[in-house]
Specification:
CATH class of the largest domain in chain A: Mainly Alpha
Shape of chain A: extended
Number of domains of chain B: 2
Distance between the termini of chain A: 80 Å
Number of domains of chain A: 3
Strand order of the largest sheet of chain B: 1-2
CATH architecture of the largest domain in chain A: Up-down Bundle
Number of strands of chain A: 0
Distance between the termini of chain B: 39 Å
CATH superfamily of the largest domain in chain A: NADH-ubiquinone/plastoquinone oxidoreductase chain 6, subunit NuoJ
Shape of chain B: globular
Oligomer: heterodimer
Largest interface: A-B, 48 and 58 residues
Strand content of chain B: under 5%
Number of helices of chain B: 15
Radius of gyration of chain B: 23 Å
């Protein structure tokens, strides 16, 4: 189906341009990284809650792009689902909290900024040191994007080791997986969730039953009379009387 | 396509990739935009038929074929309004966010064997994740409009979509579990053959879970009876109250795109994908892999099948919309949390037990071919032909470990 769509001469002319010399993997990596970092700064610099959330989403989505670029599709999709989707909820809360006065600005004080800058730079320094000290730092565009990147790890999490044992380790069949730690973390998260729900639930106030309130309130004279009349032999009248006592009580 | 461009036309690699990506993107864009035009016309006709009217009859001939085009021209000519108190940037950005989410999800959707923008080994997960982002544009629109109607509509939509992602995800997991893969191409391939090989008819649990999926899909794309975000009797037009012209139409393209997407996903996951109810191609002796014209014919047939099934799904959504009254917000939440989620969970467990106890089905040997599970990551990106020997795979798996030690 292609020959009709492609104009080969024009494309070949394009192909002789120097762009062919660019390492496109690095270019895309830098592009995504720049987007992620730029919008991360924008999150800090913005004053409107909803815009902050938007910038955070863009930053996280660019990170997902980095994962997809590295061939880790599952992690990329996970990033979209959990982080971007989670920020969605954050955004909802932002909208709810600022809904009384539209476009409320949140500005941090100078002291906060200095403190945040110190903490951020310290963390960056630690990460850079740790990152640069990895001995087998492989070039990103080495051509062989290892396909089963996350699978051995995931299998190990459910208790099956599919990765090759290194020297000195026992055979694959008897090596332990990470099922128990994984389950402990899961249960821990569940406990945290339940606890959060317990703390955040709407406090139920103890209220009396409506019938007790009605009984405790002295009905006004007219209503009492009405009720007395209503308690006569006529069936329809008693229904009416019941209704009026109730309204009298709730008043 | 990339192989063709590099080998036959002799383009350098990067240009071949760019051209292939552009062709895919333009085709998908046309599917969404052209599909929206066709389905808006169909919506008018279906609603008219259900309400005992005629619908459009004059624009472009007897059936009003050109009504959508006329609408499009009208929208182009409309003034682009923005409320005075609005947050300009977000207001302008919101429709594109919605549209982009819908568009991105199409990238991983296969239309026939190997006719897919980008074959991902986690395609199902990717589509569900990206589809959930569409609501982002809606919330931004509702917030940035500086209008109470819009804000209420957006909050309702957010609550609804976030809730319905849970049962939707559970429904989607069932075919994934049966196929042993999250690759949509693999899932559809597993249902090849006669229609009783479809996962809809795999066992009673999948049959029920399909209907739960339909309910959740309708809710997650905000169609009636779940269209509380734009309940016109209460909220004027909900989140798009303040929008006009082309920006407004982007929301609608996104909506119709998502409708088509969830229908196509239902087709791939439960209704055999591009495999028709009767395996015509196999009966005629055509195959996907070999020959000169046969692969193209088979793929064309598959394309017709999938588009037909997905369009049928969209038509059914219209039928539902014009038949059922709108639910209240508490009813929407009850449907999700008290019915859809538990049913989906129980059916998931049931389907799992069925797969363990009756791997061959009720009549072993009659129905589906043997139940081998193919790990997607063991294959190359090229698909079946590119499956590598196991030894080479282990080498790849070992490589990072050696590099680290």
């Amino acid at each position: 189906m292609m020959p009709a769509l492609v104009a080969p001469a024009a494309l070949l002319a394009l192909a002789s341009l120097p762009v062919a010399a660019i390492n496109w993997h690095s270019f895309l990596f830098l592009l995504f990284a720049a987007i992620a970092c730029g919008f991360a700064v924008a999150v800090v610099a913005a004053t409107n809650v909803v815009r902050m959330a938007l910038y955070l989403v863009l930053s996280l989505a660019a990170t997902a792009g980095l994962f997809l670029l590295a061939g880790a599709e599952f992690v990329g999709a996970m990033q979209l689902m959990i982080y971007v989707g989670g920020t969605l909820v954050l955004l909802v809360f932002g909208v709810m909290l600022t809904a009384q006065a539209p476009f409320v600005a949140i500005a941090s004080s100078n002291g906060d900024r200095v403190l945040a800058g110190v903490v951020g730079l310290a963390l960056l320094a630690v990460l850079l040191l740790a990152g640069l000290s990895v001995p087998a730092w492989r070039a990103p565009a080495s051509g062989s994007l290892a396909e089963p990147a996350a699978t051995p790890l995931g299998m190990a999490f459910v208790g099956v080791r599919v990765d090759e044992p290194v020297a000195g380790e026992p055979r694959a069949a008897v090596r332990p997986g990470y099922l128990l730690p994984f389950e402990i973390v899961s249960v821990h998260l569940l406990v945290v969730l339940v606890g959060a729900a317990y703390l955040a639930r709407a406090k139920r106030r103890k209220t009396q039953r409506a019938i007790d309130i009605v009984a405790s309130v002295e009905p006004p004279a007219s209503v009492a009379e009405h009720a007395a009349i209503g308690r006569g032999p006529a069936g329809a009248g008693s229904v009416l009387a019941g209704g009026s006592v109730l309204t009298g009580g709730s008043r | 396509m990339v192989e063709f461009l590099t080998s036959t036309v002799e383009l350098p690699g990067w240009l071949a990739w760019t051209v292939a990506a552009l062709v895919s993107a333009v085709l998908i864009l046309n599917v969404i935009a052209g599909g929206a035009l066709a389905f808006i016309w169909a919506e008018r006709k279906v609603s008219a038929r259900i309400q005992d009217r005629l619908g459009p009859t004059r624009t472009g001939g007897r059936f009003g074929w050109l009504q959508s085009v006329a609408d499009g021209i009208k929208l182009l000519a409309k003034e682009d309004l923005m409320p005075e108190g609005a947050d300009g940037l977000l207001f302008k950005l919101a429709p594109y966010v919605s549209f982009c989410a819908s568009f991105c999800a199409f990238i991983a959707l296969p239309f026939a064997f190997d006719v897919v923008g980008q074959r991902l080994n986690v395609a199902v997960f990717f589509v569900v994740a990206v589809l959930g982002l569409e609501v982002f544009g809606v919330i931004l629109a509702g917030y940035a409009s500086a209008s109470k109607w819009s804000l209420f509509g957006a909050m309702r939509e957010a609550a609804q979509v976030v809730s319905y992602e849970v049962p939707l995800g559970m429904c989607v997991v069932v075919p994934v579990m049966l196929a042993g893969s999250m690759d949509m191409v693999t899932i559809a391939e597993k249902q090849a053959g006669w229609f009783w090989n479809w996962y809809l008819f795999h066992d009673p649990f999948t049959f029920i879970v399909f209907w739960v999926y339909v309910t959740c899909a309708v809710a997650s794309v905000n169609r009636a009876p779940f269209d509380l975000a734009e309940a016109e009797s209460e909220l004027v037009a909900g989140f798009h109250t303040e929008y006009s012209g082309l920006r407004w139409s982007y929301f609608f393209m996104a909506e119709y795109g998502s409708m088509y997407l969830v229908s196509a996903m239902a087709a791939v996951l439960f209704l055999g994908g591009w495999n028709g109810p009767i395996p015509v191609a196999t009966l005629l002796g055509l195959s996907e892999g070999t020959g000169d014209t046969a692969p193209y014919l088979v793929r064309l047939l598959g394309l017709v099948n999938l588009v037909g099934k997905a369009s049928l799904g969209v038509i059914i959504m219209m039928w539902i919309r014009w038949t059922l009254p709108r639910l209240r917000i508490d009813q929407v939440m009850t449907t999700c949390l008290k019915y859809c989620t538990p049913i989906a969970a129980v059916m998931f467990a049931g389907a799992m037990l069925w797969k363990i106890t009756l791997p061959g089905g009720l009549m072993p040997g009659v129905g589906r071919p043997g139940g081998e599970i193919r790990e997607g990551w063991l294959e190359g990106p090229g698909g079946r032909a590119a499956a590598k020997p196991a030894a080479e795979d282990q080498k790849v798996a070992r490589a990072p470990r050696e590099a680290a030690s």
